[in-house]
Design goal:
Layout (H helix, E strand, L loop, with lengths): L3 E6 L6 E7 L4 E6 L4 E5 L6 E5 L4 E6 L5 E5 L3 E4 L5 E5 L8 E8 L5 E7 L18 E4 L5 E3 L8 E6 L4 E6 L4 E8 L4 E10 L5 E7 L5 E6 L4 E5 L5 E6 L5 E7 L5 E6 L6 H6 L6 E5 L23
Antiparallel strand pairs: 1-24, 2-3, 3-4, 4-5, 6-7, 7-8, 8-9, 10-11, 11-12, 12-13, 14-15, 15-16, 16-17, 18-19, 19-20, 20-21, 22-23, 23-24
Length: 309
């Protein structure tokens, strides 16, 4: 596999995450969790917009009726760029020490989010974790919240649904990527098995699927790469990056053939950042493959392979 990697934006995100491609706007959206901001970038023109958020912002998805669904620290909100964040659902009102982490619109138009014991102090500094308390939740268009797993995961990451009803998920602390059988319409997850464990390059963070249902997984905490896995856990590619903490990725561009990758500079020393100035940047990778359009909240995708680009 021959790939090329370029810096698209020197974003200097503290924790860039949850990147998605809007085909209608030919633009990328992503969040900076600790920086408390949402980005929008048009790769073709270079136009770059930033909106502040009232709390740590953990995920973002597009809505079918316009605007976005956004995960903050504790709540899921509806949002229009420049507008207020309107609370829509609170997945764990009884677990104040937890926070939201990964979040993504599923093919049936629901919004899935996952939680974890918070590793952030209010000022954004690192907070120690002492238990696995994370779970996966499904939020439907009416705001109903359903818990899909026990609260047993450490740092929850990666959400990806294959075209044949399988679901990828990862626990960063465990350095494991899982595969479930999945009924997307009901949120039923069964038959969990470990797809990849102990991979030597960093730890699993965010991921996306290509059109062949191969998982492209960002290897955070020193991994400096995006690893491609097939449905049996075989390594199909490794994209080297000039940043040690890649965090999330998505396919975009006119034909969904560019892999866009966010990264983080969380907890890094001034000396390290001086020696590695691209940490926290946004990167574009060519030559990996082609992706599929991102679903929208409230609009089930009948055939993902022909979804609107």
């Amino acid at each position: 596999m021959r790939t090329s990697v370029s810096l698209l934006l020197d974003a200097k995100d503290i924790v860039g995450e949850s990147i998605i491609w809007s085909g209608e706007e030919s633009a990328l959206y992503w969040v900076d969790i600790v920086g408390r901001r949402i980005h929008r970038l048009e790769p073709a023109s270079g136009r770059h917009d930033i909106w502040p958020t009232p709390d740590f912002v953990t995920s973002i998805g597009m809505r079918a009726d316009g605007g976005f669904i956004v995960g903050l620290r504790r709540s899921v909100c509806l949002w229009q760029p420049g507008g207020a964040f309107e609370e829509f659902a609170v997945p764990e009102p009884d677990l104040p020490d937890n926070r939201l982490n990964e979040g993504r619109v599923a093919p049936d138009g629901a919004f899935w989010v996952s939680t974890m014991q918070s590793n952030l102090h209010p000022d954004g500094s690192l907070k120690n974790m002492d238990r696995n308390a994370g779970a996966i939740y499904r939020i439907d268009v009416g705001g109903h919240v359903a818990r899909l797993t026990p609260n047993e995961y450490g740092i929850t990451n990666t959400m990806a649904w294959t075209q044949d009803s399988r679901f990828f998920f990862a626990d960063t602390l465990a350095n494991e990527i899982y595969l479930f059988d999945c009924d997307v319409a009901t949120g039923t997850l069964t038959n969990r098995r470990t797809l990849a464990a102990g991979f030597s390059r960093g730890f699993p963070d965010g991921s996306c699927l290509d059109a062949e249902d191969r998982l492209w997984n960002c290897r955070v905490a020193g991994g400096a790469a995006v690893a491609g896995f097939d449905g049996q856990g075989g390594l199909v590619g490794l994209v080297e990056l000039p940043a040690g903490w890649p965090t999330s990725c998505t396919f975009g561009g006119p034909d969904l053939s560019t892999l866009y990758v966010t990264s983080a500079r969380f907890t890094m020393s001034a000396d390290h950042l001086e020696a590695h100035p691209l940490e926290g940047g946004l990167f574009a990778v060519e030559g990996v493959g082609r992706g599929l359009a991102e679903p929208k909240f409230g609009a089930p995708v009948q055939n993902p392979s022909v979804a609107e680009k």
